[in-house]
Amino acid sequence: YLGQNIMERKAEARLASFKIVELSESVVDPAEWGKNFPRQYDSYKRTVDIERTKHGGSDAFQKLDDDPRWRILFKGYAFGVDYREERGHAYMLSDQDITERLHVVKQPGACLHCHSSVIPAYRKAGKEAGVPDAGGFNWPQVMAGFEKVCAMPYPEARKLVEHPVTCGDCHDPQSVALRVTRPAFIYGMRALARSDDPVPHMPSVERWRKGSRKEEYDPNKEASRQEMRSFVCGQCHVEYYFKGPEKLLTYPWHKGLKMEQAEAYYDEVKHVDWKHAQSGAGVLKAQHPEFELWSQGIHARSGVSCADCHMPYVREGAIKISDHHIRSPLLNIARACQPCHNYSEAEIKARAETIQDRTKAMMLRAEDATVDLIQALEAQRKAGVSDSALDKAFALHRKAQWRLDYVAAENSMGFHAPQESARILAEAIDFARQGQIEALKAK
Amino acid sequence: YLGQNIMERKAEARLASFKIVELSESVVDPAEWGKNFPRQYDSYKRTVDIERTKHGGSDAFQKLDDDPRWRILFKGYAFGVDYREERGHAYMLSDQDITERLHVVKQPGACLHCHSSVIPAYRKAGKEAGVPDAGGFNWPQVMAGFEKVCAMPYPEARKLVEHPVTCGDCHDPQSVALRVTRPAFIYGMRALARSDDPVPHMPSVERWRKGSRKEEYDPNKEASRQEMRSFVCGQCHVEYYFKGPEKLLTYPWHKGLKMEQAEAYYDEVKHVDWKHAQSGAGVLKAQHPEFELWSQGIHARSGVSCADCHMPYVREGAIKISDHHIRSPLLNIARACQPCHNYSEAEIKARAETIQDRTKAMMLRAEDATVDLIQALEAQRKAGVSDSALDKAFALHRKAQWRLDYVAAENSMGFHAPQESARILAEAIDFARQGQIEALKAK
Amino acid sequence: MAILRKRLLGMTLPGLLLGVLCGMFTGMSAYTFYFAEGLSYLSNDPDACINCHIMNEQHDSWLKSPHHNVAVCNDCHVPQGFFAKYYTKAEHGYRHSKGFTLQDFHEPIRMKESSREIVQQNCLRCHQSFVSEIAGHESGNGETPDCIRCHSQAAHGPVR
Ligand SMILES: [Ca+2]
Ligand SMILES: [Ca+2]
What we know:
The complex is a heterotrimer, with two copies of chain A (443 residues) and one copy of chain C (160 residues).
Chain A (H helix, E strand, L loop, with lengths): L1 H13 L15 H7 L1 H8 L17 H4 L2 H5 L18 H7 L2 H4 L14 H10 L10 H13 L2 H5 L8 H4 L12 H12 L8 H8 L8 H4 L2 H10 L6 E3 L4 E3 L8 H10 L5 E2 L6 E2 L6 H6 L2 H4 L4 H5 L2 E4 L2 E4 L10 H4 L8 H38 L8 H19 L8 H24 L2
Antiparallel strand pairs in A: 1-2, 3-4, 5-6
Chain C lengths: L1 H8 L3 H13 L4 H6 L10 H4 L6 H8 L9 H5 L4 H21 L10 H15 L19 H10 L4
Helix pairs in contact in C: 2-7
């Protein structure tokens, strides 16, 4: 018995994957891919699981009930109506269908860029827009289709897609090598490469900058495998806005990846997400800047990718595969952290939670400060103080809200970059309280 | 040739240390110790060197000129007159003699606990206080003498000492094993052990807490060698105050090592360092809480001691010794950091400075906020607002000033615990701005 | 080492041999022993260790380390006294084969406390004179600094 077992394992080591079906760009259904890669497919399907951690996990509770300050902070915006903890990839399309945010406001097709396996739809729309068919991925068609689908009303675009993110969104169907497929990410990285923000954790960008710069930076051509292990996630886990009436999905990296660089971009293009219903200020909404915040942390700087923690290798018999059950690494510490950190699981958890607890405490402090500012502004407006007298306080509300939300909307509770998160929150507090002072002084 | 070289080195290795002189408690002069341990003595003498780093180093420039906000922040206190960057151990006694702080205020003998090789003086004073002689270190005599010398006027006590910190302050003269000799540290650690603040980086304390607790915690008996490599520094690199009219040097660790635990202790004993000359609030001065802040950082938690970074091993011929040239590790990155961090020196330096730059930016923000509060209070008092109406704002000034100074007085510019430093500064900003609001509202 | 010495002192010579034999024969059937190249444990060749693919990572990282041309696995991972050596080999042989067969071990693989002590003693064995001044003072608490704390990369290279 024992001997047989070892023989099996030796054999296993050799046959990593069989080619059972022929994959191509048109094969979207993950079950088909799963025939060739059953192990990856099995773990991929497990993103339906629901589990909670201290500050994360996949239980889609209502954040507005958990901490009602957010109802005040989002007053007048769709997020003030429904804002939940996010969960596994399996839910990305259905969660979008059921969010109240979609019902209280008219949303564009742009949403689907990150909530579905959208590329075939882009290709179709691109063709309709006149770009001819061609073999393979057909970038021109995809890019043209992207623009068209962004501008569609959501219900219309929704009909074009069927699946949440699937294999082809991150993998080449021939080689299974990693690739990025999302137009907004391609444009975002081009802009970032042209900026002068240092990105020591992206050696291919630093290299491109030193070159002729004749062609645009292209992650699919230049990035190393290790960079791609984060870029595939950076396709969606990023701050974004819809540009102009065309609702063109855009990542604000033109000046760099840092919080204030995105803000400076928004200020320059005079972007406002909404006018706060209580304070009257024109404010910004931040969304899941995981890729950006990770970029400021010590792990990124040390070359640790998203996949290293969120898709760690698991040994299945004699072969190692990437765990496609993407989830909180704190549910999987042995595989996610221990290859690099030689402490017990309990100790690693305690370290991560110490960081998160500190962030949470600062975040609550920043929430209180920003709510105080909102209420001070509301009181002054009710008392008849003119908007122009409140100009300075409005500007400070915008700055504070952006910073607070940046850390709150990011999903690691500060873990991806502990000191940077703290710095951002310290600024949020300062601007909120300064705003309160300006509001009090205004007459 | 190679063979011969190796033979030579092996010979050298055996002569690592000769016993040339007989050392005992009464041998204070480091030159005598240096006869047995010439390598350590040579490096020890190099603490006279002067070199600057971006945020540290050993150039004793005037901090009040470097950033004049501190003249406002320290108004009415000796530190407002003379406050310099600290430098090497060789200067500790002479720098104390020349500081203006000693001339503008009457200081007690307590200062010498940390600025000189004071134990023989304690022993002498203890004897005069009636504690009999005994062989060896004679703790009862030292403890009694400590109380007496603390209470003496500085000029009188100064005559009892001759040397800055020397070998016997950290080493047993017989075995050269590490030991702690400072009464205030012994008392401080006793109080800390009796508190319930978790100290995962001090396993011997955690162990003592689980025992009978009949005898007090004694670092010299319980601590591991690795803990001692930080405890010898914790004898002096700590926050302190002079308790009562006896000026008994005391470390405020009764509730724990964290910033707010020291504050809670001071609040409880109603300690006030001085009444701020401009704001009128009764505020606290923080002093070099390196040991405490290091305790909150990831290095302490990983078992990395002060000596690991500030006294790294250095190769001397065929043996390695501890570098007794204690200084900024950023002047010695190859030895201080590279054994554990496999990046280039430039990269390690960039990482440390990124942390420090962020801390500095937050610190300046906290300085501005606290100065604004001080000026708001001054304005209100000048306008005739009563002190009782300003009570809340005074309390907030005390809190803000304590937090700001805690990070500013700590000497690593946040490096010893980056996120914790940021958290403290975030609170400083919040309390300062809240104080400003209270001051504005007061009538 | 202290632990091991204690363990060994409590054993008679026949007891030791029995331990070795038990390790070989209860842990593995003779067939398994042959097929998994169980004799690996008795050889000094690092290739012997990677008969178990489980050891690939350590092997690869060892190849990148400054030690790969001066020390093989056994120089660090087994004690050098004859009895201690074969006792350890048997004990590891048993435990690792069992782990490998049942696939019930913790991953990533971590050294047991006793294995750490063996390694530490081997560092000292080769570097005794170089560290004589720091490795323990004649009296005092005599604890030796944990070499691995600072030098884990010396054995298994930079990237683990
Ligand atoms: Ca979640
Ligand atoms: Ca200095």
